[in-house]
Amino acid sequence: MGSRRRARELAFKGLYGYALREEEPEKIVLELVRGEPQDVVDFALSLVKKAYENIRLIDEKIKNVLENWDFERLAETDRAILRLAVSEFLFFPEIPPKVTIDEAIELSKQYSTHDSSRFVNGVLDRIAKLEGLL
User: Fold this and answer.
1) How far out from the chain centre does Cα 128 lie?
2) Could you report the per-residue pLDDT of 11-36, keeping only the tens digit for each?
3) How many of the other CB atoms lie within 10 Å of CB of 121?
4) pTM to 2 decimals?
5) What are the phi and psi torsion angles at 58 (to 5°)?
6) Which DSSP string do the residues of 38-95 spell out, in sequence order?
7) For residue 134, how far is the Cα from the chain centroid?
8) Is 116 within 8 Å of 108 (Cβ atoms)?
């Protein structure tokens, strides 16, 4: 597994843990990174920090493209994956949007349901197009 993918996985777990435990996601990530290379730790923390600091903006971007879905009823795993990816769109312009979408799809395949990957892909594709990224 590449270092960026591992960092995304840790950031996802931080955001997911935030939803469950209502602790700062950075604290959760720091609990998980023991033994990880410094580049993984740094990227995971920067991802989760930007997502957490801008969660209202990110949630609005997601809500604006949901069709026939209520944001509050989304699975916590899907919500965390979407938040992470939208944070990458908005605050990490050096990462190609297609890479962000592909990584989010892989996270959804690993941590959510089979159908979630199509849902995540559709939501992120709509956001990326609205943001002028695709």
Assistant:
1) 14
2) 999 999 888 887 777 888 888 888 89
3) 15
4) 0.94
5) -65, -45
6) HHHHHHHHHHHHHHHHTHHHHHHHHHHH-SS--GGGS-HHHHHHHHHHHHHHHH-TTS
7) 18
8) yes
